[in-house]
Amino acid sequence: MGTVATFYCVGTTDTKLEELRFLAETVRSSLATFSSSSSSKVEVVIVDVSAGQKETESLSDFKFVTRNELLLCYSKSVGGNPIVLPDDRGAIGL
């Protein structure tokens, strides 16, 4: 059984979702071409780092990490309470 190489495309899905999908698909297809002759597999994950009101909950064609999942994971790693982002993008203070 081969290994799985995971690549992360990180960006703001509230304003750049189509660009992230394009990037992720390009990475996935390019790397699949290189790994087609090996037992290694390629996985592409889109990670949302948006600060706006519009939330993307899931993507059907890629594994996806929501901003809430990312913030919860960070909060747990530093032993703090869950982080809630403010409504104003310019007012982020973690």
From TrEMBL:
InterPro entries: Tobamovirus_resist_UPF0261, UPF0261_N. Transmembrane segments: none annotated. It comes from Gossypium arboreum (Tree cotton). Residues 6-89 form the UPF0261 domain. It holds the Pfam family UPF0261. This is UPF0261 domain-containing protein.
